[in-house]
Amino acid sequence: MKVLMFGWEFPPHISGGLGTASYGLTKGMAEQGDLDLTFVMPKPSGDEDQSFLKIMGANHIPVVWKENSREHVEYRLGNFMHPDEYFWLRNGIKYDFTRIYTNDLGCIDFSGKYPANLMEEISNYEAVASVLAHQKAFDIIHSHDWLTYPAGIFAKQISGKPLVIHVHATDFDRSRGKVNPTVYSIEKRGMDACDHIITVSNLTRNTVIEKYHQDPNKVTTVHNAVEPLADVDSYVKSERKDKIVTFLGRITMQKGPEYFVEAAHRVLQKTDSVRFVMAGSGDMMNDMIHLAAQRGIADRFHFPGFLRGRKVYEMLAESDVYIMPSVSEPFGISPLEAMQVGTPTIISKQSGCAEILTHTIKTDYWDIDAMADAIYGIVKYPAMYKSLREKGIEEVNNIKWYDAGLKVRAIYNNLLGWH
């Protein structure tokens, strides 16, 4: 089976859970064998793991015909693509995209991020999808999150192949209900046009059905999982007097950072032997620094900034408690990552991962007293810490991307009538 998959980010260079989930799912699917997977993204770095799929950069695919010598193409794209592939793709240009600014190769210079002109990049991504849809052979199209839905729709219109869209979040999650009408319309159009919708939790599935008016029969939940850590034993806690409680994620309203600060304030009224870490970056970071100062706990707070790769696991392993107080979290992979390295977790009941995790403490995001009590209990009672640690490791080791991949493959087979 040949799959044309549109994504926006892929490890090691990621800004959130979307890239982590894209990697885990594709790897889990590839383990089944019999799968030819092409993963398209705006701007790869060249150091992505391509042992189980082919990564194509939208910034390397010509959308405007420009005459170039083979030597020049090799000089410009040699690290990413064989010149023959460039010329072959160029033959797939069927529309006039000269309105789009392109470079000397007729390719679009995508940022590979979430820039101010994001809507323009999403639109330009459609042009790339049209070239691929005309040239590549594939059985099914899979689009990850709203940024790639227009590309998926265009590829479906050209090829006639089924389109699966993967909802990792909706704008209702990102905006605390203050939905951007432009984003909503892109999401709704993707859901209406596709053949099947995958959601990362039942929480998200209900939002898709109720807020986007989708047929429940068209929407399937496939919970996320976590990639096994080969070197898990290398992550250890250092000897220290103070306990560490960590929040790790985008410091933005969806993630509920203010509830973390307020819970920290409650805990520090009972004990001063705890330090709090808010790792990440986001539009509310300065507000949180000021809030910690207002509550008189700035000396117990640390803001290390955005962490990636091994540093994430080192921070999680160093922590005595990991907390995710999200207001609306479609899934939330980070608690699973914390559990892998033996760190007890507290998560909001308003998170998708709460549907599959048993050995964690669940509170309402707004209930800072319950959150503070849970933190205090874990840091003060060794038996509670030990139980959550040991049972958490056992539980998370049984949540595998391979199983998620099997569910996605079953959806593909059903749409294609393959059994």
Question: Could you characterize the architecture of this molecule?
Answer:
- Helix content is 41%, strand content 14%.
- With 419 residues, it is α/β, with parallel strands linked by helices.
- The protein folds into 2 domains: 2-225 and 401-416, Glycogen Phosphorylase B (Rossmann fold), CATH 3.40.50; 232-396, Rossmann fold (3-Layer(aba) Sandwich), CATH 3.40.50.
- The strands form 2 sheets. The protein has a 7-stranded parallel β-sheet, sandwiched between helices.
- The model has no long low-confidence stretch (mean pLDDT 96).
Key attributes of the depicted protein:
15 helices; 13 strands; Rossmann fold; single chain; 419 residues; alpha/beta; elongated; six-stranded parallel β-sheet
Largest sheet: 7 strands, parallel
Q: What number of structural domains do the residues give?
A: 2
Q: Distance between termini?
A: 12 Å
Shape: elongated
Strand order of the largest sheet: 3-2-1-4-5-6-7
CATH superfamily of the largest domain: Glycogen Phosphorylase B
- Reading the helices and strands in chain order gives EHEEHHHEHEHHEHEEHEHEHEHEEHHH
CATH topology of the largest domain: Rossmann fold
Instruction: Please estimate the helix content.
Output: 40-55%
Rounded to an integer in angstroms, the radius of gyration calculated over CA atoms is: 23 Å
The CATH architecture classification of the largest domain is 3-Layer(aba) Sandwich
Count the beta strands. Answer: 13
How large is the share of residues in beta strands?
5-15%
Total DSSP helices: 15
> Structural class given helices, strands, pairing?
alpha/beta
Please state the average pLDDT score: 96
Unreliable spans: none
